[in-house]
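Students often ask why we bother encoding 3D structure as a string. The short answer is that it lets us treat folding as translation between two languages. Here is a chain of 353 residues written in the first language.
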Amino acid sequence: MRIGLLGGVMAGFSAMLLVPAGVVLLAGVSSPEGISSGPVLSLILAMFVPFVLCALLVGRFLVVRILTPLRELNHATGQIIKGNFDAALHYSKRDEMGDLCVAFNAMSTQLKASLEKQALLERSRKELMASISHDLRTPLSSIRGYVEGLQDGVVHDQAKFDRYIAVIKNKTESLDRLIDSLFHYTQLDLKPLDADLRTWDSQHLLDSIIQPIMLELADQPVRLQVERPFPAVSLLADEQGLAQVFDNLISNARSVLREQGGVIAVQATANSQYLRVKVADNGPGISSEDMPYIFDQFYRAEKSRSRAYGGAGLGLAICRKIIRNHGGEITAEDTPGGGATFCFTLPIIEIQP
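And here it is in the second language, the structure alphabet:
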């Protein structure tokens, strides 16, 4: 039989009243002179009233301050077991039970957020596998088709043979780039955030990254416009990581400007806390539907799967990981008058003398 907390307390108070009275009665019975029952009964009655009042007060305290929140806690726990993580405790008194209820609500909130994050990661994993399958299958199917054509002897002239070989080479390079992107993306999760960070002068760092890109674009229809001199502040940076960020951003801009030509502008400014770098182009820009998702892994606009501001869907996701590993943020927005502007920040550090 379950007595419960309140029953146990009431039993304890009853024992406190009855045991002393019983001892007195037994002592009187065993004594040769005996004992009058009148004084004993008067003593018991005198003790009974305050004991009952104390028991009622303690019982009321237990019900309000302990049993009621415990019932709430039990109900909320059952709701969480059923998967309802919105169940919350409303007991708010500033005591131990109040602290327990606050901790329980915090635990419930964190558990809900953790499960939502787990579900999001699981969905992201499935999307990742689906995207990898699609991106690998497409060039592999093309390579297989052209190789089978060569094996079947459908190519009878050198020009067609050269064209088949060029397509196969192009598709294998696409596969190589995709696998390389996947490797870099997973490596960013595996290695420590500060593994390759060291102190740099921002002017020297940016010049060393931008100069080779300028030489590469010197004879191209796409012109790289760099605003110099770069700010000279101290950064804790990974040169290869930032070079990959610039390469991804500028390669994306080149892809959308390749046909009609255009300008890619690079600018850097600094305040007391951050170095701010902008990479802008005068291309077609980014649609409002795509803008919230372009940094998500493997996101691409379905209506234009070949668009550059998504590429294979990993370039901008890699950029965001690298910049966040530096303690900064990267954003994108449409440039007034057409085009897109990507902006990222890097924290400035103070060099101790």
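Translate back mentally: The helical segments are 4-30, 37-81, 96-151, 158-190, 202-216, 239-257, 315-325. Keep this in mind for the problem set.
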